[in-house]
TrEMBL record:
Residues 1-22 are annotated as: Disordered. Residues 89-197, 258-365 form the Calponin-homology (CH) domain. GO terms for molecular function: actin binding. This is Beta-parvin. It comes from the Eukaryota. Its main location: cytoplasm. GO terms for cellular component: actin cytoskeleton; focal adhesion; sarcomere. Pfam families: CH. InterPro entries: CH_dom, CH_dom_sf, Parvin.
Length: 368
């Protein structure tokens, strides 16, 4: 969480000394300084050459400050150009919005996932909110060692929630999070969002280019580049799922998609017209769950009590309640549990809506 940093005291302005002739010892000192500067420039040039060399098909862009390594030390760095990828930007913004929604009552606002999360303070508050528990950690820590100790406690708690053990996770650690490693922080937040079924739609198949720079010897750097997957394709349980016909329609046959939508509109209106209701736009008219609840009653011939759902939902939670209730009705009449999450329907995810309606169409299409 960003907080105003105290400004460093300004160096007092001293009276300018009169120019004098440079002494022999001054010249020796100047030569030494120039030599050290030249050594730094050589290391940076060597690093740039290693990264831009013809052996790399796409030369990664690495800030010069990342060249400051000890002998045999490795450092993994996300390529700056990856952070400009629209899908990566979208993922980061979705996660930031989710955190801010969760912590709105505590007046916590996250603007940058690395700068605001590295010290463990926001992660602590987020985990406490999601688990409805209180972590036994100091509220405020100023020193770096205090931050790392607090972060270690928070990450152990996260690992227990996600994996049932407090052992270190493979994709994040105290060192990587505290050093503001964006890849590690993204992995951590995506895992939390999936585990707690956050009411957001994470962009699928997001990946970034990561460069591992190693200092092999003085003034000699080597590098290797690999692609790190941050998100993949998920079903409602957060596991990988196979692509289905709707994925193919969206990707390769938008004209056929319109035919499917028209058929589904005809199907639902055939039954909703019995209570003088009509669907014009599948993209938006099912997101509050009202038509789904009424449609289930019409298809199965029973009355759905109005006190069981919100006929005019006013907020997100009421809409989620409606869709969840409609899913329960579907399972009560023998339909399989929908793979879509209620939150996906409420968030206007068209694929999820079409999948739910198509399951109804398959069972009831021949019904008068």
């Amino acid at each position: 969480m960003s907080s105003p940093r105290p400004k460093s005291p300004r160096t007092p302005v001293l009276p300018k000394k009169e120019d004098k002739e440079e002494s022999f010892w001054d010249k020796i000192g100047t030569i030494g300084r120039k030599k050290r500067i030249k050594e730094v420039q050589d290391v940076q040039a060597e690093g740039k050459y290693a990264i831009d060399s013809p052996g790399s098909p796409t030369a990664p862009e690495i800030p010069p400050e990342e060249y400051s390594l000890l002998d045999n030390e490795e450092r993994a760095i996300i390529e700056p150009r990856s952070l400009e990828d629209p899908r990566v930007k979208e993922l980061i913004q979705v996660l930031i919005d989710w955190i801010n929604d969760e912590l709105a009552m505590q007046r916590i606002i996250v603007k940058d996932i690395s700068e605001d999360l590295y010290d463990g303070q926001v992660l602590q508050k987020l985990l406490e909110k999601l688990t409805e528990t209180k972590l036994d950690v100091p509220e405020v820590t100023q020193s770096e060692e205090g931050q790392r100790q607090k972060l270690a406690i928070v990450l152990r708690a996260v690992n227990r929630v996600l994996f049932g053990t407090s052992k270190p996770a493979q994709k994040w650690s105290v060192d990587s999070v505290h050093s503001k490693n964006v890849v590690s922080i993204l992995h951590l937040l995506v895992a939390l969002a999936r585990h707690f079924r956050a009411p957001v739609r994470l962009p699928e198949n997001v990946s970034v280019n990561v460069v591992v720079v190693k200092k092999d010897a003085p003034n000699q750097l080597s590098h290797r580049t690999y692609i790190e997957d941050i998100t993949t394709t998920y079903d409602d349980l957060g596991m990988k799922c196979e692509r289905d016909a709707f994925d193919a329609l969206f990707d390769h046959a938008p004209d056929k998609l319109q035919v499917v939508k028209k058929s589904l509109i005809t199907f639902v209106n055939k039954h909703l017209s019995k209570v003088n209701l009509e669907v014009i736009d599948l993209d938006t008219q099912f997101h509050d769950g009202v038509f789904l609840c009424l449609l289930m009653g019409l298809l199965e011939g029973f009355f759905v009590p109005l006190y069981d759902f919100h006929l005019t939902p006013q907020d997100f939670d009421q809409k989620v309640h409606n869709v969840s209730f409609a899913f329960e009705l579907m399972q009560d009449v023998g339909l399989a549990k929908p793979k879509a999450r209620p939150e996906d329907i409420v968030n206007l995810d068209l694929k999820s809506t079409l999948r739910v309606l198509y399951n109804l169409f398959t069972k009831y299409k021949n019904m008068a």
